[in-house]
Amino acid sequence: MSDAPGVAIVVPTLDEATTLPRLARHLQLLDPPPADVLVVDGGSADGTADLAAALGLRVITGERGRAKQINLGVAEARAPLVCVLHADTLPPDDLVAVVRRTLAVRSIALGGFTPLLSGSEKVRWLTSFHNWIKTWYAPLLLRPHLFVRGVRLLFGDHAMFFRRDQFLAAGGCDPGLPVMEEADLCIKMARFGRVRLVNRVILTSDRRVAAWGEARANWIYFTVGLRWAVGAHRRLGEAYPDVR
Asked: How confident is the model at residue 58, as a pLDDT?
């Protein structure tokens, strides 16, 4: 596998000192290992950047805003394939192999894992199911011309991955979006091929659902998605309580 393309993992962070050690332990278990792991900190006040460096991760700092941080991380990544991983999401140990295998199909421009939201007390089966089915019904209803071309709408918890050169050619994430930057990227990447949801589970924290309540969380996700779909981008932050 020495001639296989390298995979860089970009982790945008803001005040993630409590989640980063666990993620770092999982990253050490990846087999094969990634070519690069880059933490892009947006000005954390809890020592996230220093902690990441102490854990042996490469760290750069940039302007706050997940879209801006992702753009900076991809620009600085040292591999042709990139996976954007949230600090509260735990990857399967064969993440690198899955990314390579999926993007070896040239007609696929972007992929993501199937997230399962869970915490210390429960698994959020309902919200996880909604997140899964939303990747299908959202583009079918909102972008049907792209749906028939194989485009699905993925979000941050999906640990999206893509080819670095195509991401840069597409203009990257929209820095003006406080949320929904991942779904917006799916639309941009459609020019290069299909967007595929890989049938592999990735574990992500249910901390927002636990804080907001399951019904309210799904309503927030629906409202934010609808505003994005109709172009009300300036109002996205109003509907999302935890813009990072």
From this structure: 96
